[in-house]
Amino acid sequence: MLEEVIIIGSGPAGHTAAIYLGRAERKPLMFEGFMAGGIAAGGQLTTTSEIENYPGFENGITGNKLMEQMREQSLKNSVRIVTETVTAADFSKHPFEFTLDGGEKIEAKSVIVATGATAKKLDIPGSKEYWQKGISACAVCDGALPIFRNKTLAVVGGGDTAMEEAEHLSKFASEVVIIHRRDKFRASQILQDRIKSNPKIKIMWNSIPVELKGSKFLESVTLQNTLTNEKTELGISGFFYAIGHNPNTEFLGGQLKLDEQGFIVTQPGSTKTNIEGVFAAGDVQSPRYRQAIIAAGSGCLAALECEEYLAVQHLL
Predict the structure, then answer these.
(1) Which residues are catalytic, by number?
(2) CATH number of 121-241
């Protein structure tokens, strides 16, 4: 069966696009994925406990609950949702052809790629046990939570993201410790200068985390000096990954234009990719801010541009 539009991904970008296209009576088909990128349907937000900065929820909402509500809203707007993962795409012909993890083939006139990006994490003892119990991959999302306020927090990384995360956390923490494996940062100089002049931020050079410990919640990190191998214990209440994200674009087979990090390149101010009829929304094409509200906005834009594409091309 030929579809007018399919949506690949089920985070805020995917569901916002689905809701708009459903209301436009385009009967969108969403592939929400089954543990795609190691994340459950609903995307990266399902790994976030409390969300307090998404408009409309004065008392906050959990990531899982927010995504459940978006999914229900999509269903009420005639969106068909399939819990399968798209494993391959063929944009060399039109209609486009997509392969599902079960081997089935689907054709579509247009597609919105909203597969997001997965935070890079460290595979060290304690990293799984204390995930969301003191460990996070988003300081802007979680840094203001009560469990982190007026506590010692650690950020691991040395790029722009690590600098920005540390500076943000310094607004709430009593102390922020940046853990970096080298003796200099790769971040832009202006960000480095701001970090080094912030009295609440301390830098642990030539250090790597080797173990995370605690009881019910995270309480400390064991650091190893990369030059001497000496180990030290640092008491912390929060540990934030700032070592980058992996965009979930492998299934595209290099057919879309990507930047040097692997994120989909779209036209400025647009969700249009280098292939007509293919749109990209959310974290998969926006690596910097990684905020749900921004992803939702780009999902809206993708839906409007996709609707315009279908109308102009008379592919009805």
Answers:
(1) 138, 141-142
(2) 3.50.50.60
